[in-house]
Write a structure and sequence with these properties.
Elements lengths: L1 E3 L4 H9 L3 E3 L5 H6 L7 E4 L9 E2 L2 E3 L4 H7 L2 H7 L5 H6 L2 H7 L7 H6 L3 E6 L2 E6 H4 E3 L2 E2 L6 E6 L7 E7 L10 E7 L5 E6 L6 E2 L1 H8 L6 H14 L10 H20 L1
Parallel strand pairs: 1-3, 2-3
Antiparallel strand pairs: 4-5, 5-10, 6-7, 6-10, 8-9, 11-12, 12-13, 13-14
Helix pairs in contact: 3-4, 9-10, 10-11
């Protein structure tokens, strides 16, 4: 296996264009290699490219680690980061690698969906920013072209006033989510609810959002309706971690609890 360690983005892009597989923190790629699922001939490591590790205002470089997000990220993003693997994984794993893997259960994805973040992609032809909804295209599939690198997450100019992350799993730490979610609530009542592990990609619950956003002071009945609509809108499957029915129930309960947290 040929390994290339560029120090500039141009060098990395040249290697990717030549067919090299990008390596960020390695917490996903090396698992696939160790289990023999993939055998890349050429790997390009991105750790030495300084601009990919920078965090400038609302632009977060793709090589920023989960440990950094945990300590300085927006509230719900930091809450999500704390649930990613173990401390060792958070020190190595990156937000760009998480996006590139595009697991439906990725803990960082619901925050990006809830706040309508963008994903910055760069090739030697130029730079583009895709909305999160255009970036994720299926289970572990994205709109990234083979010659492109994920270079940053771009947050909106303004985040909602309150936001909270929650996760349901079979244990309290180092677990792949059965359901994960972020709910936001702004000063004018505008509410978003985004979910992971309940569809092929991260999703929002637009009917639930519209209903609860029209409630300036949600009553118990409004909260119950919000929970019901979320349970209807998610698109889960039954697999070795959970059943469809439980995921629907858990998504609604989790969303309601996160909304209640935002309303306090």
């Amino acid at each position: 296996m040929k390994v290339h360690h560029p120090t500039t983005l141009d060098e990395a892009l040249a290697a990717v264009e030549a067919g090299a597989v990008p390596l960020a923190g390695g917490t996903d790629l090396m698992v696939e290699v160790n289990f023999g699922h993939i055998r890349p001939d050429h790997v390009v490591g991105l750790r030495r490219i300084g601009e990919l590790s920078s965090w400038e205002d609302r632009r977060i470089g793709a090589m920023v680690t989960w440990r950094t997000v945990e300590t300085k990220g927006p509230k719900a993003y930091a809450e999500a980061a704390r649930t990613v693997g173990s401390p060792q994984i958070r020190n190595a794993g990156t937000i760009g690698g998480n996006l590139g893997t595009a697991s439906p259960a990725g803990d960082g994805h619901p925050f990006l969906a809830a706040v309508d973040a963008g994903v910055e992609l760069v090739s030697r032809r130029g730079r583009r920013v895709l909305a999160w909804s255009d970036f994720f295209t299926g289970v572990k599939r994205t709109a990234r072209q083979p010659e492109e690198l994920i270079t940053a997450v771009v947050l909106p100019e303004r985040l909602p006033m309150r936001h909270a992350f929650g996760k349901v799993g079979v244990r309290n730490a180092m677990v792949i989510a059965t359901v994960c979610a972020v709910v936001t609530r702004d000063e004018d009542g505008a509410t978003t609810a985004a979910f992971g592990s309940v569809a092929p990609t991260p999703i929002r619950a637009p009917r639930a959002e519209e209903m609860i956003s029209a409630e300036p002071k949600p009553t118990e009945s409004a909260l119950a309706e919000f929970q019901r609509l979320v349970s209807e809108e998610v698109q889960p499957i039954t697999d070795h971690r959970s059943t469809e029915a439980y995921r629907r129930h858990a998504a609604g309960v989790l969303a309601r609890r996160l909304l209640e947290r935002c309303l306090r």
